[in-house]
Automatic annotation (TrEMBL):
It comes from Kitasatospora cystarginea. Transmembrane segments: none annotated. PANTHER family: TRANSCRIPTIONAL REGULATOR REDD, TRANSCRIPTIONAL REGULATOR REDD-RELATED. Belongs to the AfsR/DnrI/RedD regulatory family. This is OmpR/PhoB-type domain-containing protein. The lineage of its organism: Bacteria, Bacillati, Actinomycetota, Actinomycetes, Kitasatosporales. InterPro entries: AfsR-DnrI-RedD_regulator (IPR051677), BTAD (IPR005158), OmpR/PhoB-type_DNA-bd (IPR001867), Sig_transdc_resp-reg_C-effctor (IPR016032), TPR-like_helical_dom_sf (IPR011990), Tscrpt_reg_LuxR_C (IPR000792), WH-like_DNA-bd_sf (IPR036388).
């Protein structure tokens, strides 16, 4: 990576982290509306219609960063950046990325010469960013299982070794509140084909060396009379963070703040980086793959339901369409997509979803649509958009 790009990412991360407040403070008012550039994007809604992460992405796009650079700066998957951009264009009624760049300047979100592309080194000036008074310390070890297993030690990626060894670490990461015995690891990682010899302590020893800190190689993984466990406080697992965000989304819903519920749920979904525990062997990995995949489907459905209640039909349609394509036999997803399309006045497309799902259910499973899906079909046929 060149020095210029590296400095750009530093500036982008600093600017984007403070964007939520800065963007709100820089919405065009009567005193600066006459200074914007003439463009077709000037009639678009203000950026207050966007979520916090979407404003972050719009700012970065306005600064000229690529999707890969934005993903690095915001610490999110690259596909999540593309998803945010699609929702930005739909919400603001913009045609393409170029129009989004112009809109970022028109609304005052980006000032010429002050983005990361305009700086060779150093962060964005203090006058444009409000920084937290005390930085939150990074955990020593980060483990991500919502995708291929990955780990970072003090911010640096770690080579976790062979797949069975990775599966042992994944088992510990998925049981953060208790010790995992040697027999549980053998059953969960090897199943009915136990390995020759006493390999669990060997893998634990190797993982301790890989994840060591200073002269304390067993600091991250400890053993007690019940088995092995990861040391609390030193390790952050993305599943735990995801569940925290889901809890926050539920609390926001109970407080009747559906916009905040959608934001929290979006952040939880952004933690997924593909198939959970992709490529890892063993019964435990297989069961967790299924559980976490279902968890993601449920979160997309909850988020879409909240978006529909907020009138954000286009956002719901975009995410449900992708999920329905990946889960063609999932009737609740198909029903929710039909409702979203119907509420947007796209009755023919809603009926097409029903026909497509009905055919797949018959061809693949030999069953008819459930009563729930048939009821949604009747609602669309009646033209009752309020249902």
């Amino acid at each position: 990576m060149t020095g210029l790009v590296a400095c750009s990412l530093v500036g982008a991360r600093t600017s984007i982290n403070g964007l939520g407040r800065t963007a709100d403070a820089r919405e065009p008012g009567p005193e600066n509306q006459g200074a914007v550039m003439p463009t077709t994007a000037t009639a678009a809604p203000p950026t207050t219609a966007l979520t916090g992460p979407e404003r972050d992405v719009l700012y970065a796009i306005g600064c000229g960063l690529t999707d890969a650079e934005i993903a690095t700066a915001l610490a999110v998957p690259e596909h999540a950046v593309a998803g945010h951009l699609g929702r930005i264009l739909a919400t603001l009624g913009l045609r393409d990325r170029a129009a989004a760049i112009v809109h970022a300047f028109d609304c005052g979100l980006v000032t010429p010469g002050h983005g990361p592309r305009g700086q060779v080194a150093g962060p964005v000036p203090r006058t444009t960013v409000r920084r937290p008074t005390a930085p939150v310390p990074e955990p020593w070890l980060r483990i991500c299982v919502l995708g291929p297993l990955r780990a970072w030690r003090a911010g640096q990626p770690v080579d976790l070794g062979p797949v069975r060894q990775q599966a042992v670490l994944a088992a510990l990461a998925l049981c953060p509140d208790r010790a995992v015995s040697r027999h549980e690891l053998l059953d969960g990682v090897w199943g009915m084909e136990p390995p020759p010899g006493n390999v669990v302590p060997v893998y634990i020893y190797r993982l301790r060396k890989i994840l060591h800190t200073g002269d304390r190689p067993d600091w991250v993984i400890r053993r007690d009379q019940c088995g092995y466990r990861l040391v609390g406080g030193a390790v952050e697992v993305d599943v735990a963070r995801m569940e925290e965000l889901v809890t926050a989304a539920g609390a926001a819903e109970r407080a009747c703040d559906l916009a905040e519920a959608v934001r929290a749920c979006s952040r939880a979904l952004d933690l997924f980086r593909g198939e959970p525990l992709a490529g890892l062997p063993g019964p435990l990995a297989e069961l967790e793959r299924l559980r976490l995949t279902e968890r993601r489907i449920t979160l997309v459905q909850r988020k879409a339901g909240w978006q529909l209640r907020l009138g954000r039909n286009a956002d719901a349609i975009a995410e449900l369409s992708a999920l329905a394509a990946a889960q063609p036999l999932n009737e609740p997803v198909a029903a929710l997509l039909m409702r979203a399309l119907h509420r947007s006045g796209r009755q023919a497309e809603a009926l097409a979803v029903f026909d497509r799902t009905r055919r797949r259910l018959g061809d693949d499973l030999g069953v008819l649509p459930s009563e729930m899906l048939r009821q949604t079909h009747r609602t669309v046929l009646r033209g009752d958009r309020g249902a």
